[in-house]
């Protein structure tokens, strides 16, 4: 670090200016907000600039002798005559619609016909809806508990023996 300058090296202030500075009243000054402006670029700006410089340097140092020769194939994107003809027909139709003379049309009145179902169909639908509501909102708590007894009456041994004898007769008769 350098040394502080000596008093003789400092610039001299005129006497009248010095007395003015010493008697200056700072309360007469207006209040001002200071705004610091950072003119240095941000880290993102520095990174972006380095990336751009690297890219440009890579382009400048590129060796074009390493490239392979290729043949360019030109394709004709123009439509054929069928497509052009179809577009002309379409354009003529659009022009016909756009420039149509409405004054040549006749006035027509529209009759709205509402086909409502007759009263029997409405009544049948109400009955059906009430039935569905009754089934959907049925209260199971009003039901009584029941026990189911299965009664399966099996044939006794005599009936089984008779059926076996009949089957034997049928089989022997064939």
Question: What's a concise summary of this model?
Answer:
The protein contains five helices and no strands. By secondary structure, it is mostly helical.
How would you state the average pLDDT, rounded?
Answer: 86
Q: Give the tally of β-strands.
A: 0
Biggest pleated-sheet summary: none
Radius of gyration: 54 Å
Number of helices: 5
**CA distance, first residue to last residue:** 134 Å
- Quickly give the structural class: mainly alpha
Element order: H for helix, E for strand? HHHHH
Global morphology: elongated
Strand content: under 5%
- pLDDT < 50 stretches: none
State the share of residues found in helices, binned by percent: 40-55%
Task: Provide a descriptive summary of the structure in words.
This protein is mostly helical. The chain is built from 5 helices and no strands.
How would the blueprint of this fold be written?
Layout: H1 15-22, H2 43-60, H3 81-98, H4 119-136, H5 157-173
Tag the structure with descriptive keywords.
174 residues, mainly alpha
């Amino acid at each position: 670090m350098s040394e502080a300058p000596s008093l003789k090296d400092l610039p001299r202030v005129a006497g009248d200016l010095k007395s003015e500075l010493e008697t200056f009243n700072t309360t007469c000054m207006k209040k001002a907000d200071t705004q610091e402006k950072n003119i240095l670029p941000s880290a993102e700006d520095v990174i972006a600039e380095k990336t751009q410089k690297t890219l440009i340097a890579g382009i400048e140092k590129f060796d074009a002798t390493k490239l392979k020769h290729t043949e360019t194939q030109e394709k004709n994107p123009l439509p054929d005559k069928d497509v052009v003809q179809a577009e002309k027909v379409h354009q003529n139709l659009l022009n016909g619609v756009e420039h149509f003379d409405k004054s040549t049309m006749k006035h027509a009145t529209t009759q709205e016909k509402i086909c409502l179902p007759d009263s029997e169909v409405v009544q049948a639908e109400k009955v059906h809806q009430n039935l569905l509501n009754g089934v959907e909102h049925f209260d199971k708590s009003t039901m009584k508990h029941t026990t189911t007894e299965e009664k399966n009456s099996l044939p006794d041994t005599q009936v089984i023996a008779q059926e076996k004898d009949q089957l034997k007769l049928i089989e022997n008769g064939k």
